[in-house]
Amino acid sequence: MARATISEDQKALTLDDATLPVIDLSGLFSCEADDKARVAAALGDAARTSGFFYITGHGVPETLIEEMFAASKAFHSKPRSFKMKYWSGFTTNHRGYVPFEENGSDFPKSINFNEAWDMSYEAPEDHPDYLAGWRMTGPNIWPDIPGWKDTVSTYYDTIFDLGLRLLDALALELGVEPEELTRHITYPTSQLRLLRYVPNDMPGTKDLVGIAAHSDFECFTILLQGGPGLQVMNAEDVWIEAPPIPGCFIVNIGDIFETWSGGQFKSTQHRVINSGNERYSFPLFFGLDYHAVVEPLEKFRTSETLEKYPPMKAGEHLMRMSINAFRYMAEAKAAGDLVPDYDVPDENPFKRDAKAP
Fold first, then answer.
1. Domain locations in the chain as residue ranges
2. How many other CB atoms are found less than 10 A from the CB of residue 16?
3. Which residues, 6+ apart, have CB-to-CB distance to 118 below 8 Å?
4. Buried b / exposed e along 107-137 (16+ C-beta atoms within 10 A)
5. Smallest Cα–Cα separation from 57: which of 251, 259, 282, 331?
6. Strands, E, within 71-174: which ranges?
7. Top-level CATH class of 8-334?
8. Which of 86, 191, 274, 286 could be a cystine partner for 204, CB 3.0 to 4.6 Å?
9. Selection from 229, 272, 225 nearest residue 244 by Cα
10. C-alpha–C-alpha distance, residues 53 and 328, integer Å
11. Per-residue confidence at 99, pLDDT binned at 50, 70, 90?
12. Is 314 helix (H, G, I), strand (E, B) or coil?
């Protein structure tokens, strides 16, 4: 595959342009406990304030990043007829291609101008949840593009391993044993999306967006982005820009870690505006096993935190939000074809409204 190029605008940005905290993770790869503790403290500070931060020193090779951009472009440049052969609606575990008209249950009243390839942690075909028809667990599918599976699988494994390091560091910062968190990770619903924001000449409004405002549903997200457009709600509930910076990923805390920490960590609202420009990005949503019960960790359990964060299954929270996010899932729910018939509130309890437009 040909390598992707980075835009001149992106090349011009440096760490001095960061609107969010910047954390060097290199200490997590050290044998010295003090180095790891220093990084963990910085992660905890960012998780309690912005909930969003840039990371450097992550160890992900630049060549792999370039190959990922090229792989995404190789797929998304294919004809619609090719991509629709891999439509995610043909699967029972949400794998494959998501056309832009599938984004949101109220299309075309509201439009998210993106298309995606969705994959997740590889579970075998005989996994009980897959056999039972539960969504989000099971085997991946792959497009017929030479070398594509190898590139994307390598990237997934690399970022997932980085996620495990982040999980250990955040456990250290919270003062809990890592096993208290990792015991929920055997076949997690950790999804990687190869997103392409579709060029268009429509205005950017509250109903015409790249991706509508939301918090992420899992532990945290590790995002690689190839162009501007991401906006984050700051501590004053005002939207700020979070542009891509070469050599950096963006990490944001998700709903699970906010729950685990009893609200100490912040699952922050964010969105992608509709600029009308083509844009590629790769979020990996680091999640838990489908049936993992999520509630404040024992250290953070009080009557107040238990009332604010009642127990929820990680997969059911993900599905509640996915039903609203993907039209084919909303239609399947209406037809009674989801397993189980998800009778859960549609409202996201983690949502906050911004003061700025």
1. 8-334
2. 7
3. 88, 94, 95, 96, 97, 98, 191, 192, 193, 194
4. eeeebbbbbbbbbbbebeeebebbeeebbbb
5. 251
6. 96-98, 111-112, 114-119
7. mainly beta
8. 274
9. 225
10. 33
11. very high
12. helix
